[in-house]
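Reading group handout, session on sequence-to-structure problems. Before we discuss, look at one worked example. The prompt was deliberately terse, the way you'd type it at a terminal:

> structure 2'-5' RNA ligase superfamily protein

The input record follows.
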Amino acid sequence: MIVPVPEAEPAVGHLRSRLDPAAAEGVPAHVTVLYPFVPPALIDARVLAKAGEAVRTVPSFRARFTSVEWFGDQVVWLSPEPARAFAELIIAVCERFPEYPPYGGVHAEVVPHLTVGDGAPTAELRRAAELVRGHLPISTEVATAHVICGSSEPGSWHTIAELPLGRR
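And the output record:
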């Protein structure tokens, strides 16, 4: 489950296509809400209703991506404000789906972020960070979370459900 950020595509799309393996699979610029999520074969009306209930507990909000940050020297990303609103969305969904810990439970803390590059050579990531800095801030209205499905095949990821956040 993600929050797509189409407003970021002009600034990061060309960079992500080279530097983020998820982009080549068709995953748009986004902030992850929960990955991995329920396996596609198990997503039914009940799962989507449960996810929709969780998402609606968080009011829609306006977000801005204002700075370039790093996870070590392997991942360059954009930091959203208010990060707390994204965190509340992540928490609400994770509480409803505890059997699917974020990132498989690998990270003790989940940091809301929009990945620009992941695992590419550090010099390329540094160039990307400088390029994208010139496009900040990027603003978006966060009104829906999307359930997406796909595989490692190029261009395979697609939206199967759009879940509206609550009203302000």
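Points for discussion. First: The CA atoms of residues 8 and 33 lie 17 Å apart. Second: DSSP finds five helices and eight strands in the chain.
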